[in-house]
Amino acid sequence: MWSRILELFRIGRTTSSPPEQPAAEKALEELRAIKKLLRKQELFLENFRVEITTKLDERDVLSAEPLFQIVEAFFHLDASIREILTLSPGHVEALEMVWRKLEQYLRLKMFEVIRRAGVPFDPRLYEAVETVRAAGHSSRLTVEKVAQPGYVHKGRVIRPAKAIISSPQDQ
Q1: What are the distances in angstroms from CA 22 to CA 3, 9, 11, 31, 74?
Q2: Which of 7, 127, 162, 164 allows an S-S link to 148, with CB 3.0 to 4.6 Å?
Q3: What confidence tens digit (pLDDT) does each residue in 30-71 have?
Q4: With contact defined as beta carbons under 8 Å apart, do 145 and 75 qualify?
Q5: Which residues constitute the domain of residue 43?
Q6: What angle do CA 54, 55, 60 make, to 5 degrees?
Q7: pLDDT, tens digit (0-9, with 9 covering 90-100), for 83-136
Q8: 31 within a domain of the structure (yes/no)
């Protein structure tokens, strides 16, 4: 192919007449074919990048599973302690300190825990496992209690939190 392109340049230098049309057309066709191959290569590389990124994300999620088990164990321990005992402000602060450390470590790994109650219900983050009537005059669905924490990885929900939600009285 390159020899044909060089041939075109040689023909142009040796004769004063324009190069033959068929040789120029062949070179143009070859350039179009190269352009088409480059587009295919670009698509292939983009698909490969997406596939590798997806596999790395899946690997990250699988390797974080033991950490999720620790978070869930502490979540249930925290919930049971708060239900059974009347905690002093110091004890509440100690529990929150452990949560901050866990969440800080998860953020280093690009994870976030979904565990907050009393927030507006977002179906992307929470899975409603039970609905109760709202005691107040709220006009929207609210997360009353989180039954199991959920997780977000790099902005994508990998496991929604299971929650008990309260619905407005008029629904």
Answers
A1: 15, 14, 13, 14, 77
A2: 162
A3: 999 999 999 999 999 999 998 988 888 888 888 889 999 999
A4: no
A5: 1-62
A6: 95
A7: 888 888 999 999 999 999 999 999 999 999 999 999 999 999 999 999 998 776
A8: yes
String of b and e for 75-110 (b: at least 16 CB within 10 Å)? beebeeeeeeeeeeeeeeeeeeeebeebeeebeeee
Length of the chain: 171
CA–CA distance, 140 with 152 (Å, rounded to integer): 24
Q: What is the largest CA-CA distance in the chain?
A: 100
Residues 6+ apart with CB under 8 A from 160: 114, 124, 125, 126, 127, 150
Total of domains in the chain: 1
The edge-to-edge listing of strands for the beta sheet with 126-133 is 126-133, 161-167, 142-148
Spatial distance between the Cα atoms of 122 and 141, rounded to a whole number of angstroms: 9
The answer as to whether 2 is a domain residue is yes
**Does residue 46 lie within any of the structural domains?**
yes
The answer to whether residue 49 sits within a structural domain is yes
- Residue 13: which H helix or E strand, with range? helix 2-14
- Would you say 128 and 165 are in contact if contact means Cβ atoms under 8 Å apart? yes
